[in-house]
Amino acid sequence: MSSSVQLSSLEERLNHFDLNVRKVALTQLxxxxxxxxxxxxxxxDVANLHCHTFYSFNAYGYSxxxxxxxxxxxxxxxxxxxxxxxxxxxxxxLDSCQFLEVRGSAGMETRVFLPEFSTREINxxxxxxxxxxxxxxxxxxxxxxxxxxxxxxxxKRAEHRLRTMVNxxxxxxxxxxxxxxxxxxxxxxxxxxxERHLVQAYLSAVERAKPDPVSFWSEKLGxxxxxxxxxxNDKAGFQNLVRSRLMxxxxxxxxxxxxxxxxxxxxxxxxxxxxxxxPCIAWLDGTSQGEQDIEELLxxxxxQEAAALNIVPDRNWNISNKGIHDQKVKKLYEIVxxxxxxxxxxxxxxEMNSFGQRLLDDxxxxxxxxxxxxxxxxxxxxxxxxxxxxxxxLGYQSEWAKKHFPTRKDRNQFYTQMGYKIPxxxxxxxxxxxxxxxxxxxxxxxxx
Length: 448
Hints:
The structure is a single chain. By secondary structure, this protein is an alpha/beta fold. It is built from 19 helices and seven strands. The chain has helices at about 5-15, 20-35, 65-75, 90-100, 150-175, 180-185, 195-210, 215-220, 225-230, 235-245, 265-275, 290, 295-300, 320-340, 370-390, 400-405, 410-420, 425-435, 440-445; strands at about 45-50, 75-85, 105-115, 130-135, 280, 310, 345-350. Helix 3 runs parallel beside helix 4 (about 90-100), helix 15 (about 370-390) crosses helix 17 and helix 15 packs across helix 18 (about 425-435). It has three domains: about 1-40; about 40-145 and about 275-440, Metal-dependent hydrolases (TIM Barrel); about 155-245, no CATH class.
């Protein structure tokens, strides 16, 4: 077997739904790289801390192990996962990063309802009051008993919403339909399907049932045959078209949001803080009515203990229309400056939950040169918190941190410095475990 075929085979097994298969494949890959059979790229000052795994939806099918390997093979300095409504991939990813000597972090994303913004669209298009929201810096799948009901409720709400969508869309597509348990659940290893899995399932069902899928989709999407015929060959674009037409506002499967549809910020924060992680605001592009009132929004969420801000840079500069490009780049610079003023470190990445999204932001793009250092500082901050919390229990939310750093600014600076200083893998763990647990921050910085 040639080395390229062997590499391809092992990387494919990294995405197997059986964790044991993934573990064996990862061990074999690192053995081959240590032996010089597989080339590992030189380390680069780049980061992607917002990668969905196949525990929610990854457009490329990547597991947590596969994403850690992607970072190692390509020389990404920092890598992080984020999944919708579950923490299933946290231990696997952080264990893989430790094994591969990659600086790793893990988060969770969900949607919340903000009654204060109930008449304003925020970052969920067409859904006033609904906001994507996150926790970053989780260190394990294991949730404290007092917070477990919150995680369970997140999963129940997501499942109920998706089952309702399936019922509505089955009526709309009749006689084409899908079975939630038999056709949707098997698409994800953890029983946590999303709207994007739903799109895949219906596309497959139509392909099986209809000899002329173009005519079928033309009728259901309300688009001319010629347009659908053009779009259907663009896998990424067509999936996004189906989702936006049928599952978003005005679509046959759409469910109007209400305070009961999504959790509150305080509920999600209760889970995040109990796990020693950091509540994180999600920012889209600054153009919605809610994000035009960004200072009001940030003040509201900071008052509820949010302490970081997520940005997906690529959609804010990589735009062909010059007018829109210039507007969104301006908004990007404004939010980065505001986050700095408010002491909100940045969690940035490409998501990977839609076909066509990059594996890594273009850190050399001229538009990102002004904000590159802020992106890297934020990534090192989250890694610094993660490795200290996971190794010695002295992360950002620890009593030790609150005692020594009563202000967010000072605490942010410390964990950012530690993130730059602590090497990944066994060397970093050994250094941290040699530190005096009652030491001062200056002693930690000096000894590391």
